[in-house]
Records
---
Amino acid sequence: MAEEKTVCPWCDTEIIWDEEIGPEDYCPHCENELKGYRSLSLDMEESEDSEGKASVEEYQEDQEDLLYPISDLAEGPEDEGFRHTNRRGLVQEEAVSRLLEPQEEMPECPSCRELMLETGRQLHGPGTGYVPREIGEGSSMPAEFTVVWYVCPACFDLQQRMTLKDRIKLLGKLSEGDAEQN
């Protein structure tokens, strides 16, 4: 009984299989497919090839343009040390962190998970255009309440929440309604 050997191209593990069973379709070590493996070689030269493809350096510049908009690069490159830093981005991050410090709440943006900035408060009640929904004998909401508006500094998504004081009032009103029903 002769054993044949195969080397997994993914993890370089030597796979020994029996002739009676046949070759493995998947590596028993890393569980990657053995038959569909393809290798790709890239020419990393700095010059353009005969087909006119862009060099690696041009590709990296294009990627940098996507990461750092032209308005940020108008001041000139800001290469300092090991990696490229974007001063405007750092200043914006500092400003956001200073604005977040005094906030009572710091909700996460549902779209991108960044912390949201409080932008202001809005009063809802009689004369503001808000019409509460009537449930049974009264409204489910307090006659007047305030919402806090938040904006995401990354994706500019807007979100609003009731103030903590008004949430407590609402819970008290809902609790009273439950007590009356029992």
Note: Residues 66 and 149 are 31 Å apart (CA to CA).
---
Amino acid sequence: KYLPSVPKKHNLISKLRYSKPKKKNSTRVVFELTGAIKPVVFALAPTGPYKNRLVVDLYSRKQKSFSVDKSTAKKRTRTADRDIIIAIDAGHGGEDPGSIGPAGTYEKNITLQ
């Protein structure tokens, strides 16, 4: 099988390729990059139609800077006489079930109770 080609205007990856692994019974995939990145790598267990998966998120190390024009910034007034609502988002949706406990309890079901 061949690796997919990378769009020409991709901002982080210039090329994907296989390489000779250091050990037998292993696989090596090389990401040729356009600059410095911060990788986040994690595995996902099988769920639904998907088998075991490896996810690689790549974040640019370039800091995006921005400035706020203080003359247009609005100040918030705090009122002590108001109800405070705290909402907790399980952060899972679509096909990602989130964590599943030893007894088969889904994290999102506990969080949403």
Note: The helical segments are 107-111.
---
Amino acid sequence: MVKKFSRLREQMSSEAREKSQAKAQEMLAELPLHEVRQARGMTQKVLADVLQVKQPAVAKLEKRTDMYISTLRSHIQAMGGELDIIARFPDGSNVKIDNFSELEKDVQYNDKSRRAKTSTAS
């Protein structure tokens, strides 16, 4: 016998409903990269245009399980987001790692230098 979810939810205690809602929010906060892009309403083509790459490069990136932090950061920024690296420890403390902000500046500088060299070489 098939039961409607709304009917089952009505039978749940308020505590169980709160736990269920919290779990649903937690699951929505943990998405693979391609689902983040889709949730932001962007196609691979649009993201590729923003990143100044071809669409297959975005598809390939979204399938990777290992990538440079700078690559992930630029992908997130192209979607209008901001990437934070946070270490969580068993004692419950969280530490935001900020070393990568300097890395980002270095990458941007190197990209500009490379583009300048390429355009003067043409």
Note: Residues 18 and 51 are 40 Å apart (CA to CA).
